[in-house]
Design goal:
Two copies of one chain form a homodimer.
Chain A lengths: L2 H28 L6 H19 L2 H11 L5 H19 L2 H21 L5 H26 L3 H9 L5 H29 L11 H15 L6 E5 L5 E4 L2 E6 L6 H20 L14 H15 L4 H15 L8 H8 L16 H17 L7 H12 L26 H20 L3 H6 L4 H10 L9 H9 L5 H12 L3
Parallel strand pairs in A: 1-3
Antiparallel strand pairs in A: 2-3
Helix pairs in contact in A: 1-2, 1-3, 3-4, 4-6, 5-6, 6-7, 8-20, 9-10, 9-12, 10-11, 11-16, 14-15, 14-16, 16-20
């Protein structure tokens, strides 16, 4: 067997083990009785240890070197690159550090969960200190192994090929634009976009029915996936068996519905990855920015367009058996496009959301480099919030302690939310140009032309290209902040 | 670290990997969308391969030898014995044979599923031939590795310590007794036990409610388990996270209810295993006969007793909102204790069930030894059915092709059903003597005294003793066919 073939077999095996973990992770959030968390933890730890053994096997390094001389081309060559990248990430950190970091982040997430509602920064920071210290160590180790700056070395795991230099450029342009734009959009909203709260009942069973109707219409394959309920919605499972979740709020159905559409975007990406490369590194989704672009393509672009409302609103009214003035198109749309200066990222609208993200990006870079001390986090956060979004946290639980990312040791992930939003805008802009029937199709509830385009230009490409290359190939140009700005202006200023 | 400690860690890891497989197996039967079976198969194969690597690691053999000199006692000594037995079973078969057998049984089960409804013996036997040949090879290999007769070597995996010599003795006595007894019981039934079909509706939602009520009353811990629906009811998961299933038949609620009680018996055993030995071979349930004794203790002994009916029938009537003559105690009881000469094992009552099992035991021993050829299976089966149960299959799908065991390569398992039934009778007989309040307790719906006894005498003993030792310790004497016969006589002849 060739060295490359050995690698293919090995990574297929690792993928299956990780796939098993993904299914158990889904089960833990949806089906598992509470008392089983200890047993489940042991199962997941055992699988993680086995996957780690398999990927740090020194034979892999030899196979990689040998495979480089095998004259691979196209997908195979790209697969070998991804294999090497994955191998380097896995082997960059000493086993002790991985084990210690796992323990520390598990502890810190736990502490955070209890400390946040009590605004207990002392408890949080005591648990976060060793986490940050070890993430710093990890970033230095990865920096050496990958030949990247420490922050970029972390970022590379979530978004290969993206660098903080690029992000600085995108975010610089956005930061120049957004604060004033928020003010403009709020003025415009106050003058032109008042709306009344939607009236009538939207019971959970009907919300579930509605979500499934839209999923089916969008092309979600229930033969290869399902939807359930969890405390925090997510898209889990594996390509070929996608498990997405939502939660239902009887007094605000759009939260659940947009959540379902968002996770369906993630799911369609996973389901659309090329079957022939399943289980191989090159067959995986291309990083978290691209993944977020697929969820936001549905949630924020397509499914908040007038064309989508023309299709969806009659379905919504019929499913709930509601009607009257508050359910007229204009009022409904305004209720879904409300802009607000808020404290909480996960509740933010698409205009203010990037400001939340960019603030975190600046602070986490400073935390990683040591320019910002944990003791000074709150002051820095509040100061940035005031400047950027114009509000100051009423309490620290609604401030720098609100997200689970840092307590989990996740630094380098936040930017992908906003890069994803920008990609989504650029993809939708391209679809509008390249799929002439899109508007008619969508109004009729036919999404096949749009997904055909997404499949061909994004999903089927998997990890064949880097994120920047993929964007350029799909949209004809590099990621362009102007497209996103234009989208916001059109939608929120009626421009 | 001592050699024994190394073994403990290794077997804990193997147990976690197998536990992960068990959860995925449950998911495949209850939650997984059909299209995902291929991906799931790859995940399960990867986990099986990893578990196999871990258990065939040559280091284990050295650790076992070294640990034997460490002066272990009690549970640790028993654990070392179980570790060695598990290791020997896993290492008895060459890897090639395991892989080939897995493929052949997977194919044969698949072929069987399609061939049975079509009575296609030709297709079945073609697929079964290589399976039988490899099981014969496996039995010889295990025979050499374990120092047991070939059939006993297979049996040892399902019921350690049980031998075909012992089973021959038990089954000989039962076979002498049962055929005539069936005739007597049927006569008695015809003369004294006519009943009317239960009237009224028993919708699925109410059946589910009822099942959960009884599970709760029996002490099932929903914080460490759950119940769902599957095509074939089973008790899956792991101790600490038990997943049982049932199916609902709106026109015959007792099928589902007795199924729930049966699986709850299995579940209570798993949940009652000693927590401090979880993940170790000695901490596992003591074989399939003992496991079946726990399900039949509920299904056939306790939950078909007059004392249980006194508690359960009012609950059943109230839950369904039914009443009238057909729901009076005597009529209800007769409907649940009906004896019948039938063709199908899984539909058989407790009187004829052992005859189905003993027939299979005789035939599978003959198939394994080569005394019976596959081509002669049907004739032998029909002949035995006529002699033993007094009915002849109308078609082969209701005859020698009815069970999934043989197509799955499972030989040596069937006897455990009837050994389990005998153990159940003997345990309940002992409970009646040793738990003076049992009858009053049960009539009040309080099962704590009975489960306290089962926990102490069976569940908490896990695999500390062999099955025969465990029976003797719990009931004060070796397994005794007379107890089972007496139970049948009392229940079915009113003796």
């Amino acid at each position: 067997m060739s060295a490359y073939r050995q690698l293919v077999d090995r990574f297929k095996q690792i993928s299956s083990i990780r796939g098993a973990s993904a299914m158990l992770g889904w089960d833990a959030e949806t089906m598992m009785p509470d008392g089983a968390s200890g047993v489940r933890g042991e199962q997941l730890a055992a699988l993680a240890a086995v996957a780690h053994e398999k990927i740090t096997d020194p034979a892999i390094s030899d196979w990689i070197e040998e495979a480089k001389g095998e004259g691979l081309e196209g997908w195979d060559a790209a697969n070998l690159n991804e294999i090497e990248r994955t191998y380097r990430h896995a082997n960059a950190l000493p086993a002790d550090l991985v084990a210690e970091l796992t323990k520390a982040t598990s502890n810190c997430s736990h502490v955070w969960q209890a400390a946040r509602p009590k605004d207990d920064f002392e408890a949080f920071s005591a648990a976060f200190e060793p986490v940050l210290k070890m993430v710093q160590e990890a970033s230095v180790a990865k920096s050496e192994a990958l030949g990247l700056d420490p922050y970029d070395a972390l970022l590379d795991e979530y978004d290969p090929g993206m660098t903080s230099a690029q992000i600085d450029e995108y975010f610089g342009a956005l930061q120049d634009f957004l604060p004033d734009f928020v003010t403009e959009a709020l003025d415009y909203q106050e003058k032109n976009r008042s709306f009344s709260a939607l009236e009538g009942e939207t019971p959970t069973a009907k919300q579930e029915e509605l979500g499934k109707k839209f999923m089916t219409a969008l092309g979600f394959d229930f033969n290869h996936g399902r939807i359930d309920v969890s405390a925090h919605p997510f898209c889990g499972g594996v390509p070929g068996d996608v498990r997405l979740t939502t939660r239902y709020n009887e007094t605000e159905f759009s939260q659940s519905l947009q959540g379902v559409l968002h996770e369906t975007g993630h799911a369609m990406y996973e389901l659309g990855l090329p079957e022939e490369w399943r289980g191989q590194p090159v067959g995986q989704a291309r990083g978290m920015s691209m993944h977020e672009s697929q969820s936001l393509f549905l949630d924020m672009q397509l499914c908040r367009s007038d064309e989508f409302f023309a299709y969806s609103l009659p379905v919504i009214r019929e499913t709930f058996g509601v009607g009257g003035e508050t359910w007229e198109a204009e009022n409904f749309k305004r209720s879904l496009l409300k802009v607000e200066r808020g404290l909480i990222r996960v509740d933010a609208d698409e205009v203010t959301y990037p400001l939340h993200v960019m603030l975190r990006y600046r602070l986490e870079k400073a935390l990683l480099s040591g320019d910002l001390q944990i003791a000074d986090m709150e002051a820095a956060w509040n100061d940035e919030m005031k400047k950027s979004i114009g509000v100051v946290p009423d309490r620290i639980g609604n401030g720098c302690m609100q997200d689970i990312h840092w307590p989990s040791g996740i630094i380098g992930y936040f930017p992908t939310y906003t890069i994803g939003a920008m990609i989504a805008a650029q993809l939708f802009d391209t679809v509008k140009n390249q799929v002439p029937t899109w508007a008619d199709d969508v109004q009729k509830g036919d999404f096949s032309s749009i997904f055909k385009w997404l499949r061909e230009n994004v999903h089927h490409k998997a990890s064949l290209y880097s994120t920047p290359e993929l964007i350029t190939q799909a949209t004809g140009k590099p990621l362009d902040v102007e497209v996103f700005k234009k989208h916001l202006q059109t939608r929120y200023l009626g421009a």
